[in-house]
Amino acid sequence: DFLRSSICYGVSRAGKTIFAAGFPRPAILTSAREGGWKSVSTMDKGLRYEPKFKPLLFVVESKHGNIQSFLKEVNAYLQEIERRVKSGEVKTLVLELSFYSQEVVRSFGDAEKNGWAKYAFLQDHITMIDEMTKAGGARVHYNAIAHDPDKEGAPGGIVVDGRALARKL
Fold first, then answer.
1. How far apart are alpha carbons 118 and 105 in whole angstroms?
2. Mean pLDDT value of segment 133-139
3. Rounded distance, CA 24 to CA 53, Å?
4. From CA 57, how far away is CA 30, in angstroms rounded?
5. Calculated CA dihedral for residues 75, 163, 168, 109, nearest 10 degrees
6. Are 117 and 108 in contact (CB under 8 A)?
7. Does 166 score more than 80 pLDDT?
8. CB < 8 Å & 24+ apart, contacts of 47-54
9. Which residue, 5, 62, 105, 151, shows the most beta carbons closer than 10 Å to its own?
């Protein structure tokens, strides 16, 4: 049995997405604001686990004004990924967690109106994606930005919206 979940975190531009694109048959779910997907689109096929399988990119636009608009785009991607997992075309879902979590929280809008509901939704949403992917027999790999160790007073660990989610992962 292979590794079902993994997480890689590091500073920006460390090569996390290229690393993850080398996993077996990856589908990368990311934000348009995250730059690693651009590197993956031009990466050398010799870096792939299976050179003939090009990583699939699902890039979420960052211009959503509300959670319904965000979810409409994401759900279309998730349905396509689920279909490809079931067919065996995808064996690894790579989720760019730091950027993706920011997109979910931003889509809720004003923090005063939504309070902690957006963080609870984020945790449930990521858990649903994780369970759906694993139920289809694929693995899930998370990429996340690490706190910059050179910034005074910055704690170590993963940069992700919602403390409970980071602890759960």
1. 6
2. 93
3. 8
4. 8
5. -10
6. yes
7. no
8. 47/18, 47/21, 47/22, 48/21, 48/22, 49/22, 49/23, 49/24, 49/25, 50/24, 50/25, 53/24, 53/25
9. 105
CA 18, chain centre distance (Å): 13
Tokens of 82: 């689920």
Indicate whether 155 pLDDT > 80. Answer: no
Contact 87, 25 (CB under 8 A): no
Identity of the residue numbered 130: D
Q: Residues 150, 155, 157, 160: is their CA dihedral positive or negative?
A: negative
Confidence of residue 55 (pLDDT cuts 50, 70, 90): very high
In this prediction the pTM is: 0.86
Query: Which amino acid, one-letter code, is at 71?
Result: L
Q: Give one DSSP letter per residue of 10-29, joined into a string.
A: ESTTSSHHHHHHTSSSEEEE
